[in-house]
Design a protein that fits this description.
- It is a single chain.
- The chain has helices spanning about 5-20, 20-30, 35-40, 45-60, 65-100.
- By secondary structure, the protein is mainly α.
- The chain has a domain at about 35-95.
- The protein is elongated.
- It is found in: Membrane.
- It comes from Hasllibacter halocynthiae.
- This is TM2 domain-containing protein.
- InterPro entries: TM2.
Length: about 100
């Protein structure tokens, strides 16, 4: 099941329109880091809740703030990969839709 060049262009246009922005994710990380809004933006809801829980627990047990800081530092490097996986998933979905529509 192959798709035409026009369909490929349409798929890439849809991916570009619907994909999450790394810039927005980094902005959310720097402005609202411990709240996990950058993870929520990227569709990582469960880890958002866990990060928020660890951050709030840090108010009761201050050493947990260190866990939050380490998590946020790791997220600096994970954001590009997460965005790329999201784009790949969108591309696969839209390509499948074009294949079905073109059949």
């Amino acid at each position: 099941m192959t798709i035409t060049t026009e369909q490929q262009i349409l798929v890439e246009q849809k991916v570009t329109n619907e994909a999450k922005s790394a810039g927005v994710a980094y902005l959310l990380l720097f402005l609202f880091g411990g709240l996990g809004l950058h993870r929520f933006y990227m569709g990582r809801t469960l880890s958002t809740v866990v990060l928020l829980g660890v951050t709030l627990a840090g108010f009761l047990m201050p050493p947990l703030f260190l866990v939050t800081l380490i998590w946020l530092a790791v997220d600096l490097f994970l954001i590009p990969g997460t965005i790329m996986r999201g784009k790949r998933a969108l591309r696969d979905r839209f390509t499948a839709e074009q294949g079905i529509a073109g059949a």
